[in-house]
């Protein structure tokens, strides 16, 4: 301030300044209560803005999760459908379809039997050209020196080492047909009985020679060579009939080539049947192979905080309890009327307290422990509300320590006043108001649930479930808000030392219901859920005047479950 | 790494507590300055009720803006400044200030010696409160708070000349009041 450099000041200004600059005046006793109320209102407004922001954020997250889940479901479904349209399935004529169910193994066996019959009837004619041999090297098979030597040998009419033959799927010249379900490509290696490793430059069917075949849906490529042979290896003997006549293998292979068209028709017919059965097979595969899942749950509920108001008869008449002071007589406000009002307020509270709409949202990861049993854990948020109407307030009076001056603070709800025993007002009384006002009790928790869920299929699309678990509930905020601004509202945060509420609560949760499979990966479940807390809301119930029980919530669980890694084969 | 930290003063703890929104600290600050600030508000407000309204709004602003306090002046000055600004704002809202372009020179006003020893604070306050709002504001800001007319003009959104003019009128009115009071007092003494 610039008074020092003000040249035009004279005695009047100086006198006024001397008398009034540091003057003091006593403000009204309730001024602080008004300021306190304004600050509370301001904080509530800030809080409401934050809540609005968090709600919008939660809604956005939920929409994002739902969209992601839908997209993933769509993507995986598309992938599964594409696997069903592999060559040989999509190209199958519709006229070949039959209604009989058949598995891959059965189809392969039937096909093998048919091929074995036709193989005897056909004469070997063709051997693949040298140009196509290069394909072998590009498939990752190792070529040996022996193979190179075999390729340069022009005098041998039979199959040479390094030659390959295309035969029908599943056929191995020595092992016979080796069904390989759920594999579009595979390698089978084998050999002919005996230890004659020196026969590499001669007949590849000689005992001791090795061969390798690449089996795909479209063809089987066989390469001869003993590069993979291990000393003392036992060769399998699964098709004695073929092993007994190895010299006819080349002919037989060519016969397969010639009869391929005929055989393929039969195979296609079988594959059409497979395609018909595919959704079920995929579902079975999903159930059999996926262990992890994601679960989003929304549980609208009604909440009972299970806190009453103190019975004036049960309250101590003197000592620590504030109502003891109010009811005991000598205090200015401790009148008989106040005592009667406590009883009336208690009855009114009991009758008017109603559960308000509460909700919980949870995002959980599921791990399948057994076929029908799943472990679920994650994180969640719950907002529990209850409300009541009242005609009664607690009037609070303070006495200044030095001046012994008594003044009144803004009245508070009876509920808040009864939450702790160490109330610091010098005197209180319960008074009846002209108009009833509503009070809302709200508790926001961050939850960490852990639970088990059992699912039982009713049919292909529907299932029932039962879930049970426990949750750790971390209090984020608690508030008691009166609709009348003259009545004090309170709000406590998690780190507020003044909060009478318990910071960590454990609860048991149980739910049963039905679910529907929207797609092989996505299920929607619906059922009632009960959440019961293991302890009271008040941190130290013995110190509170109000009678208390353990709170609980009953709601409707709506959850969306997405099965991960379902395409594993 | 900071090995030695300067111990925090009580005022610093008070400020930090208020910034953290601790109600007990806010109450402490209120108890510390409420009487002085009430006197400030009484000088600007026409009645004690309005003074309380000013003070209520002022303290809410103090707590809401505590983190903006730069600690470049004593906390009391900062609180007082907020109270004054709140008072000016309320007065301007309630009685729309008429912008005057009167340029009467302050120097023309008689500057006889004044002794206020015989007056109680309530009497002085009631004299100031009886002034018209615009005179009251300018008089308070110039005579008691110590601002010059340029600063007052900026604070009130008026010209420096207008500030001087209004101050001279306020001063003349107050001097008249004092003279009348003195005269009445002397007559009363003589009659006795």
Q: From the alpha-carbon coordinates, what is the Rg of chain A to the nearest angstrom?
A: 42 Å
User: What structural class do helix, strand and pairing data of chain A support?
Assistant: alpha+beta
Poorly predicted sequence stretches spanning 5 or more consecutive residues of chain A? 1-7, 84-101, 123-156, 161-167, 169-184, 197-201, 226-230, 232-246, 316-334, 422-426
Helix-residue proportion of chain B = 55-70%
Q: What general outline of chain B do the C-alpha atoms trace?
A: globular
What is the typical, i.e. mean, pLDDT of chain A? Answer: 70
Q: What is the helix content of chain A?
A: 25-40%
Number of strands of chain A: 17
The run of helices and strands of chain B is HHHHHHHH
Q: Supply the helix-strand structural class of chain B.
A: mainly alpha
Beta-strand proportion of chain A: 25-35%
The largest interface is: A-B, 35 and 45 residues
Backbone shape of chain A: elongated
The number of helical segments of chain A is: 11
Mean pLDDT of chain B: 83
Contiguous runs where pLDDT drops below 50 for at least 5 residues of chain B: 97-110
What is the strand arrangement across the widest sheet of chain A? 7-9-10-12-13-15-16-17
The separation of the N and C termini of chain A measures: 83 Å
Based on CA atoms alone, the radius of gyration of chain B comes out at 20 Å
Tell me what the structure shows:
The complex is a heterodimer of chains A (569) and B (192). With 569 residues, chain A is α+β, with helices and mostly antiparallel strands. Chain A has helices at residues 11-20, 31-83, 104-121, 133-138, 145-152, 240-243, 249-258, 260-289, 322-328, 336-352, 414-417; strands at residues 164-167, 171-172, 176-177, 185-191, 210-216, 220-224, 292-304, 354-355, 357-368, 373-399, 406-412, 427-457, 462-482, 490-493, 504-517, 522-533, 552-563. Chain A is 29% helix and 32% strand. In chain A, the strands form three sheets. Chain A has an eight-stranded antiparallel barrel. A four-stranded antiparallel β-sheet of chain A has the order 1-6-5-4. Chain A has a two-stranded antiparallel sheet with strand order 2-3. The two termini of chain A are 83 Å apart. In chain B, helix 1 (10-19) packs across helix 2 (23-44), helix 3 crosses helix 4 (75-94) and helix 6 (133-145) packs across helix 8 (160-191). Chain B has helices at 10-19, 23-44, 48-64, 75-94, 121-129, 133-145, 149-156, 160-191. Chain B is globular, with a radius of gyration of 20 Å. With 192 residues, chain B is mainly α.
């Amino acid at each position: 301030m610039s008074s020092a450099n003000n040249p035009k000041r004279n005695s009047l200004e100086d006198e006024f300044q001397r008398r009034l600059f540091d003057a003091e005046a006593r403000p009204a006793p309730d001024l602080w209560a008004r300021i306190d109320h304004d600050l509370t209102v301001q904080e509530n407004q800030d809080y409401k803005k934050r809540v609005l922001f968090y709600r919008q954020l939660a809604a956005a997250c939920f929409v994002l999760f739902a969209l992601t889940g839908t997209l993933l479901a769509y993507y995986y479904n598309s992938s599964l459908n594409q696997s069903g349209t592999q060559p040989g399935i999509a190209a199958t004529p519709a006229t070949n379809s039959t209604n009989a169910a058949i598995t891959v193994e059965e189809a392969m066996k039937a096909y093998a039997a048919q091929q074995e019959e036709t193989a005897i009837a056909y004469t070997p004619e063709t051997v693949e050209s040298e140009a196509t041999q290069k394909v072998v090297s590009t498939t990752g098979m190792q070529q040996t020196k022996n193979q190179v030597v075999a390729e340069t040998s022009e005098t041998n009419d039979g199959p040479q080492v390094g030659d390959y033959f295309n035969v029908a799927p599943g056929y191995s010249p020595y092992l016979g047909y080796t069904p390989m379900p759920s594999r579009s490509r595979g390698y089978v290696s084998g050999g002919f009985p005996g230890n004659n490793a020196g026969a590499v430059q001669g007949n590849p069917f000689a005992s001791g020679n090795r061969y390798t075949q690449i089996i795909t849906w479209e063809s089987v490529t066989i390469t001869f060579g003993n590069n993979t042979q291990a000393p003392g290896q036992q060769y399998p003997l699964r098709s004695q009939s073929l092993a007994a006549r190895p010299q006819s293998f080349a002919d037989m292979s060519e016969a397969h080539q010639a009869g391929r068209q005929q055989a393929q028709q039969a195979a296609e017919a079988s594959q059409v049947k497979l395609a018909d059965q595919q959704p079920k097979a995929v579902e079975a595969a999903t159930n059999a192979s996926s262990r992890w899942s994601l679960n989003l749950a929304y549980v609208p509920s009604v909440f009972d905080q299970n806190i009453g108001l103190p019975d004036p008869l049960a309250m101590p008449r003197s000592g620590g309890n504030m109502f003891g002071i109010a009811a005991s007589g000598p205090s200015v406000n401790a009148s008989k009327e106040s005592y009667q009002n406590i009883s009336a307020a208690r009855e009114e509270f009991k009758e008017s307290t109603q559960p308000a709409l509460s909700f919980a949202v949870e995002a959980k990861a599921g791990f399948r422990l057994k076929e029908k049993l799943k472990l679920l854990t994650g994180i969640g948020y719950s907002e529990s509300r209850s409300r009541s109407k009242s005609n009664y307030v607690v009037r609070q009076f303070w006495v200044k320590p030095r001046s012994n001056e008594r003044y009144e603070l803004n009245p508070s709800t009876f509920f808040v006043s009864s939450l702790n025993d160490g109330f610091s007002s010098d005197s209180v009384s319960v008074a009846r108001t002209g108009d009833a006002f509503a009070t809302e009790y709200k508790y926001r928790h961050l939850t960490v649930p852990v639970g088990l869920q059992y699912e039982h299929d009713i049919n292909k699309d529907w299932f029932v479930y039962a879930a049970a678990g426990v949750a750790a509930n971390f209090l984020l905020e608690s508030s008691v808000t009166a609709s009348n601004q003259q009545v004090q509202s309170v709000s406590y945060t998690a780190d507020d030392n003044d909060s009478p509420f318990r910071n960590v609560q454990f609860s048991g949760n149980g739910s049963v219901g039905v679910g529907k499979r929207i797609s092989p990966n996505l299920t929607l479940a619906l059922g009632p859920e009960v959440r019961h807390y293991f302890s009271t809301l008040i941190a130290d119930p013995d110190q509170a005047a109000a009678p208390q029980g353990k709170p609980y919530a009953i709601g409707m669980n709506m959850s969306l479950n997405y099965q991960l890694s379902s395409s594993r084969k | 790494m900071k090995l030695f930290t300067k111990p925090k003063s009580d005022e610093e703890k008070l400020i930090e507590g208020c910034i953290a929104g601790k109600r007990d600290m806010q109450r402490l600050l209120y108890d510390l300055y409420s009487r002085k600030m009430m006197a400030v508000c009484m000088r600007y407000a026409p009645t004690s009720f309005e003074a309380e309204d000013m003070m209520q709004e002022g303290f809410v602003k103090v707590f809401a803006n505590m983190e903006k306090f730069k600690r470049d002046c004593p906390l009391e000055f900062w609180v007082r400044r907020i109270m004054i600004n709140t008072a000016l704002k309320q007065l301007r809202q309630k009685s729309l200030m008429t912008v005057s372009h009167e340029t009467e020179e302050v120097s023309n006003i008689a500057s006889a010696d004044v002794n206020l020893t015989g007056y109680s604070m309530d009497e002085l306050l009631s004299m100031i409160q009886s002034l018209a709002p615009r005179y009251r504001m300018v008089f308070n800001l110039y005579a008691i708070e110590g601002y010059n007319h340029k600063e007052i003009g900026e604070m009130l959104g008026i010209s420096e000349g207008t500030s001087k003019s209004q101050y001279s009128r306020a001063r003349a009115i107050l001097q008249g009041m004092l003279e009348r009071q003195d005269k009445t007092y002397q007559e009363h003494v003589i009659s006795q």
